[in-house]
Amino acid sequence: MSYASLSVKDLTSLVSRSGTGSGSSSSxxxxxxxxxxxVIPLQHPDTSNDARPPSIPFDxxxxxxxxxLKRMTLLDWIDTLxxxxxxxxxxxxxxxxxxxxxxxxxxxxxxxxxxxSYAKLAGLPPIYGLYSSFVPxxxxxxxxxxxxxxxxxxxxxxxxxxxxxxxxxxxxxxxxIELAILLALLVGILECIMxxxxxxxxxxxxxxxxxxxxxxxSAIVIGLSQVKYFxxxxxxxxxxxxxxxxxxxxxxxxFQWPPFLMGSLILVxxxxxxxxxxxxxELQFLRAAAPLTxxxxxxxxxxxxxxxxxxxxxxxxxxxxSFSFPRSFDHAKTLLPTSALITGVAILESVGIAKALAxxxxxxxxxxxxxxxxxxxNILGSLFSAYPATGSFSRxxxxxxxxxxxxxxxxxxxxxxxCSLLFLTPVFKYIxxxxxxxIVISAVSGLVDYDEAIFLWRVDKRDFTLxxxxxxxxxxxxxxxxxxxxxxxxxxxVIHESANPHIAxxxxxxxxxxxxxxxxxxxxxxxxxxxxxxxxxxxYFANISYxxxxxxxxxxxxxxxxxxxxxxxxxxxxxxxxxxxxHIDSSAVxxxxxxxxxYKTRDIQLAISNxxxxxxxxxxxxxxxxxxxxEWYFVRVHDAVQVCLTFVQSSNLExxxxxFLRRYGNNNNSSSYSDLQSSNNPLKEPLLSGDK
Length: 692
Hints:
By secondary structure, this protein is mainly alpha-helical. It has two domains: 408 residues, no CATH class; 153 residues, Transcription Regulator spoIIAA (2-Layer Sandwich). It is built from 27 helices and twelve strands. The strands form four sheets. Strands 5-4-7-9-10-11 form a six-stranded mixed beta sheet, sandwiched between helices.
């Protein structure tokens, strides 16, 4: 008897005769069956009248933007362009003002000494740290979305500025100042462009391990670069650890005790105050007051004892910064890589901090709007002699812990800076350089994230490797190379994961119709002659070859897990569970067609389960639905297994080769398997003799 001539009724009769009882054509009685389970018909998309080409993603994006713009009212436009109006309209003076005032004053007291310290780190006169803390703060209060983010000079950006300026052949201080201001303009322009084009998502491809490793290595370099103020002699200006250590050792004979003792004393006081402020909430003001305490102590000692071996800051210009436009753009091309790197730091650190603070204080924040606000602050700041400013983690934490409610706290901080520029600069000339260095070292000591390294070692060795690679290359090869290597490895890991997706062989959990990964659930069992494969990623040109290779492996090497059903010599069915597949491209569809033809030559039937709407439409447009046969597309894996088991069992009972595959792949036959998918003709679940 040939299976090629079997109809559904014939197959039913055949199976019924070989079983223990008789059954009707609509409800075949299979051996050991216990309950009826319907095969749910899969609705195929109609592509016959679909003359429209698939939509282009950019069309969807632009249509979404257009729809949003049409819905926006005048008030929405004001809130978008000037986010400060969101909190101005709802400001509660009796409740918020006192908190904002205290927070603003606290951060201002913390920022004055830090700003001068970071300017020295950047290789600039201390006054430019104060300039960078003045205009950008006021501008950000108007255009920034975050109500707690404290912006201004930060250690990492200052190191990047120093490294960029150190690469310029002309080492005059005047040119360095001009280029630092130009750098702020370039950074602001890049941030505005990325914010307007909503490109902040590009930075998501950089792993957190890369950022942590880069920040940790940079913190070590920053700390070593400030040691010269403790030792009392100059060391090499470099972003690499080897030249720094070599120059420190080479100048050891010039070591001086007074700056070392004063710097160490101030550093110990700063660390103690910072840790006590963190540990006890009622003493958290100590954390903010620590930098000012160090400055006051150092200035007092220098003023009273006049130690000759301790270098002082010197004269600082008095008054507010004046308006000026960059005079030359000759070095703009040289500064672009550093501008891009600082912009990346702004997205990863500032926007990340801002989003975390917004979530904690229960208000919404748009990342791209926040990036645009930072860009405007840097552009306008560059017109008033500021070098690049961004969000500070430590000052933002103090601002939030001081219960700042709105951007008014930032305005108050800006007023503190303005008053310092107008009235306090004559006092600043007595500040010891070692005191400013102690402030920098204290600030960056918390950036060495060894806890993250330990966590990564315990949780994910690959991320730990990425952390080690990034930190090591940053330390020994420099900041730019360290970032490039870290980002390169990060992208390589992303590409590797995409090109080698996770693929699981599924088995049935006992007593259920649920199918899960047999490696994750050892109790799950498979059926002889049937392989169920789940692809856990989009399918596209980069990974289809890997997927095909894995499918061939599963066909040849039958898994060594518990199997049920009739004993068969080979695989007759491959079921693809496609519910996790979010996208499939034309290359992948063509490859699947080739795979189907390859299976067909070996009498293996391909079945597809639960493709989503977009994937299903792509498959239908390609003609693959007709090629494989509509009857071999299923809503559930279990439906596909039932049908395949029916054929496997009938083939086993007749001891025939399953030549029916040639027939049931033909859609022109009026008695095809699609009759079994009718809701009026439910299948009985074939719980075979091994199913117990």
